[in-house]
Structures are given as C-alpha cells and as structure tokens.
Design goal:
Elements: E1 4-5, H1 16-22, H2 38-58, E2 65-68, H3 71-85, E3 90-93, H4 99-110, E4 115-118, H5 129-137, E5 143-146, H6 160-169, E6 173-177, E7 196-200, E8 211-215, H7 241-256, H8 258-279, E9 284-285, E10 297-302, H9 306-309, H10 311-317, E11 320-321, E12 323-324, H11 337-342, E13 349-354, H12 361-374
Parallel strand pairs: 1-11, 3-4, 3-5, 5-6, 6-7
Antiparallel strand pairs: 2-8, 7-8, 9-10, 10-13, 12-13
The chain binds pyridoxal-5'-phosphate (PLP).
C-alpha cells in the first residue's frame, strides 16, 4: 500500500543529501572531537564548520550556538538557566506551549524556584499581547517570558520582534521555542530581540536527536550538563558529530531552497483547506487560518460524530498518516491541551495535517476523497 505522510510537524524524513553528509561520521571519520590527533581534529573541524555555517544562515555568531540533543533539551536548558543563573523569579508563558516548556516551568514552580503566570489567548489562539504587556508592566521581580514562535498543533505564529521588544522594554529575558520555524523561515538573529531560541533538526529533514540552543552573547549562564569541556564547558558529553553535521546540512538545504519550498508548501496547505471545505460543509479550522500561521500546518475541526471518532484510525488503515482524531487530539491521553486552551468548550475533533516539500496535490486529492468516503 502506498503511504501518504501528512504529519511533517511531528517529524520529517532525513533528506538523502543530509544522510550522505552524515554517513562518513559513523565510520571512517569516527574520531572523538576531543582527541588531539588527526582523527579527533577531523571531527572537531566538522563540528566547528557546522557551527559556522549555521551561524551564517541565522545571521549570528558561532559563539552563540550550542549543540544539544533536540528542542526539548534546548528549552529545558534555557528555562532552567534563566531561573538559576539570571535571577528570573517569575515566568510568563502561555497555556498552549509545547510540553517541553510547560512541564519545565511547572517543575521549577513545584521546587519553589519561581512563580508562573499564563498569558491569555485571543479567540483564535494568539497570545493576547495587551495582557502580556500588562503582566510585564505589573511585575516586581526579574521575569522570563517563554513563548513559542509557531504552535505545533494549530500553526499560529507569534511576532518575535514585537514580543522581544516588549521584553526588552520591561527588562525581561525572552526565550522562544522556534522548533517549528527554524528551517522553515529565514532568521536574522543579529537583529532579533531574543535571548534564547530552541531548534531541532528533525523538523526540517535533518536527523532526530540533534538540536540547537541559541544564547545571546551577553547572556551569561553557567554550565547545564557537567563533565568534560565540550560546547565551551556549557554542555559536557562527547558530541553527536553526525547529528551536528546533519543539522547544518539540513539547514543549508532548507535555506538554499527556502523560497520555492515555502511557496509550494503554502500552496499545498491552501489547496487542502479549499478541498476540505468543499467536501465537508460542516468543517472548521483551528487557530489562525490567515497569514499569521505556519505554512506547514493545517488543523481541521471535524464535527463530532461516530464516524469522525473513527477517522484517524480509518485513515491509518488506508495508509494515511495524520495527527489527532479519536477522542483526543495528537494521540495524547485526555485530549490536546492546545485545543482545550484555545477552545475550552470544543467538542469537535481536531486533526492536524502538516506538509513538506515531498507532498503532492495528488496526495491531497486522495486524502480528501478518503475522508469524504469515511464520513
Ligand atoms: C514546538 C515544539 N517544541 C519542542 C519539540 C521537541 O523537540 P525534540 O523532539 O527535538 O525534542 C517539538 C517536537 O515535537 C515541537 O513541535
């Protein structure tokens, strides 16, 4: 059975060119980057070449980039260090962040290390910026704001510059989970008022287990993982050389093809939205369906019926991979905290379709006709 993969916000296949770039670092170029002889120098150079290349693409300095095991570790590090090392006693976040953020801030709160405040959302799930400003203005203690650039379930985009400037104005530290946007949008970090950013290679055709933490140069934190001197003493442990090379290679490809890929993927998303609207008169879409939305994600809200309850299972049996459905979204027990956060009284069933450069219009036609058939 020919499979159709429309869950690219969960992960993406590694691009063959990325794999080709990574492969030598599993075998012939196997040296420990901390070894001083030639094998080690070779892998050390590969890491620093990757860092330099990523820094150029993101318009930042290599010294501001730290390789990690993924988006989760990057966000954990940024949030923990803001509290531990930068004196943040209060965290402002939103109820619809990724669990890498939410569970970290709740953990720190449970330790008594900080207080946590959740900024409200607008009707379609954007952060209420007026409320954010009043929270910032009313604060008495050093504050960390952690808000994601794009929501992975509904796709809503945050204005990073606007929020970053607000944080600057009120002396707050700003971290953003950019896991769904680095590799899909162009960044100029030199000109972005952000202190920490989290990124992950597997969301843009790089390998899993390879992430990045951006820390602005003037933000001084202490080591997070203790041990060897890797990552300029900040994150000990022998580097994931192949993963780091894969991160850089995936970002190079994404940057090189950004213009055509983003236009193409955006057109897939609007085609799917159009076709679903035609096929299912009662359908709605979650979050912002306009410009302030990730071009890779479309979250549909199907009217709750016995047939829609079975939709994701039926699609799976037809070889179609999507996220969500059944009695809860994204497969999470008890429903999606994102959908609940935006639509507290929602009974509809959310299904997330997320696209990549590998998807085709023909695939979308098949998926929409299957959905129509099942419903
Ligand atoms: C928005 C967002 N943040 C964080 C993560 C976690 O990233 P990783 O899988 O690299 O730990 C994901 C991926 O699931 C995500 O979509």
């Amino acid at each position: 059975m020919q499979k159709i993969y429309l869950d690219n916000a969960a992960t993406t296949p590694v691009d063959p060119l990325v794999l080709e770039a990574m492969l030598p670092y599993f075998s012939e170029k196997f040296g420990n980057p901390s070894s001083i002889y030639s094998y080690g120098r070779e892998t050390r150079m590969a890491i620093e070449r990757a860092r330099k290349s990523i820094a150029e693409m993101l318009h930042t300095r290599p010294g501001e980039l730290f390789f990690t095991s993924g988006g989760t570790e990057s966000s954990n590090t940024a949030i923990h260090c803001a509290v531990r090392d930068l004196g943040c006693q209060r965290i402002i976040t939103s109820p619809i962040e990724h669990h890498a953020t939410l569970h970290t801030v709740e953990f720190l709160k449970s330790l008594g290390a900080c207080t946590v405040e959740y900024v409200g959302l607008t009707q379609n799930g954007h952060v209420d910026l007026v409320e954010l400003e009043s929270l910032l203005a009313g604060g008495q203690v050093k504050t960390l704001v952690t808000l994601m650039h794009a929501n992975n379930e509904v796709g809503n985009l945050l204005d990073l510059n606007l929020v970053g400037n607000l944080c600057r104005q009120y002396g707050a530290v700003f971290h953003s989970d950019t896991v769904q946007t680095i590799g899909h949008y162009q960044f100029n970090l030199e000109q972005s008022p952000v202190d920490f950013l989290s990124a992950s290679a597997h969301k843009f055709h790089g390998p899993k287990g390879s992430g990045l933490l951006y820390i602005r140069q003037d933000v001084q934190i202490k080591p997070f993982i203790h041990g060897g001197a890797q990552e300029r003493l900040m994150r000990a442990g022998t580097e994931n050389v192949a993963g780091i090379v894969g991160f850089a290679s995936a970002l190079e490809l994404a940057t090189m093809h950004h213009d055509e890929d983003s236009v193409y993927i955006r057109s897939l998303k609007s085609y799917m939205q159009e076709k679903l609207t035609e096929a299912i008169p009662d359908i709605r879409f979650n979050g912002d369906t306009g410009e302030q939305s990730l071009y890779t994600v479309l979250s549909a809200a199907f009217p709750a019926t016995e047939k829609t309850e079975m939709l994701s299972i039926n699609l799976d049996m037809a070889g179609i991979c999507i996220s969500g459905g059944s009695a809860c979204s994204s497969g999470a027990q008890g429903g999606s905290h994102v959908i609940k956060g935006i639509y507290p009284h929602e009974s509809r069933l959310p299904i997330r379709f997320s696209f990549s450069k590998h998807n085709t219009f023909a695939e979308i036609d098949i998926v929409v006709s299957k959905i129509k058939e099942f419903l």
